[in-house]
Amino acid sequence: MASLLFAGVVASLVAMYSFSAASLGGVFNAVFAEGSVRVETGLSYGPHRRHALDIYSPKDGAHDGPVVVFIYGGGWRSGERETYGFVGAAFASRGITTVIPDYRLFPEVMFPDFVTDAARAYGWVTDNIEGAGTTRPIVLIGHSAGAHIAGLMAVDRRYLSQGRNDIPAPAGFVGLAGPYSFDPTTFETTRDIFASVTDAGRARPTQLVTPDTPPTLVMHGLDDETVRVWNTRTFAQALDKVGVPVRKLEFEGIGHTGILLALSRPLRWRAPVLEEILSFIEGVAGQVSSKAS
Q1: Could you report the per-residue pLDDT of 17-42, keeping only the tens digit for each?
Q2: Engineering a disulfide at 254: which of 164, 221, 226, 230 sits with its beta carbon 3.0 to 4.6 angstroms away?
Q3: Among the listed residues 255, 252, 205, 213, the one whose alpha carbon sits nearest the alpha carbon of residue 232
Q4: Can the peptide bond before residue 179 be classed as cis, meaning omega within 30 degrees of 0?
Q5: Strands 172-176 and 138-143
């Protein structure tokens, strides 16, 4: 009963106010932890202090399921991987090993350094998690600025290759409330972050889609006033135009933070975000198995 009451209060707050995922994530991590999850924290994937990642794995020791690399948002300016334990646990409790990396932030770095950091973490996953990218499909998932970063990695293989020819492509991409289509060089809040950009199209996933982009699932809340839904609609149209399998979902009554927090136990009733992602991962995993056989 206490848990139900707490969930109701949190749902009301999320609906009424613009809370960040960071401000509420810690609450969900502590109060609504998932069972059957093992966590490894602070693993290094590079030389910088923010080149660190956490791994959420099924506690039963299963090492043959899909792998998720989750890139959190924060406007390219903020974010800590520990905040998003509820995301890692949600997937790991369902047999999906989940990796959540930190990456460098503005003003310490500018575009594209945070993208290359995330790509470096992806490369670490392929090198250090057995079967990742071969027998075990990797799905990139991102929220907000993290969806922009993950989206660039999905549409532009140059980020993932890092000068190597052996980095396997992701089997799929899932974007939650991503700013895929806007021009970050023209907005006051993002202009400095993308000041190094000479061709704005290189910073816009929508402009970079190719037929080689992996199957994609994009979701957006219709009450999102931080990243407008036209970003997702335009991105989905661009993918469809070049023949990439894409599923687009829009949810009434869901805002920018709410679409991510719907992955947490107390708020899953608000939108079927987790169910849709699990179904998508199952589908791309089946495709990988078919190709392997």
Answers
A1: 344 555 555 554 544 456 689 999 99
A2: 221
A3: 205
A4: no
A5: parallel
Residues 6+ apart with CB under 8 A from 29: 82, 83, 85, 86, 89
Helix intervals (H) in the chain: 2-16, 21-31, 85-92, 113-128, 145-155, 157-161, 205-208, 230-241, 258-261, 273-292
Question: Which residue from 63, 71, 41, 35 is spatially nearest to 154, judged by alpha carbons?
Answer: 71
Q: Are strands 216-221 and 172-176 parallel, antiparallel or unpaired?
A: parallel
Q: What pLDDT shows up at residue 64?
A: 86
- Look at residue 289 in the predicted model and tell me its pLDDT: 57
282 vs 287: CA distance, rounded Å: 9
Please give the C-alpha separations between residue 185 and each of 41, 148, 175, 230, 243, in angstroms, as whole numbers: 35, 14, 21, 18, 29
pLDDT of residue 135: 94
Residue 32 CA to residue 27 CA, distance in Å, equals 8
Q: Which residue from 108, 89, 78, 104 is spatially nearest to 33, judged by alpha carbons? A: 89
The one-letter amino acid at 256: H
Beta strand 52-58 pairing with 97-101: antiparallel
Superfamily of domain 25-292: Alpha/Beta hydrolase fold, catalytic domain (3.40.50.1820)
Residue 4 structure tokens: 């139900």
Please give the single-letter amino acid code of residue 150.
A
pLDDT tens sequence across 239-255: 999 999 999 999 999 99
**Angle ∠(180,238,126) on CA atoms, nearest 5:** 60
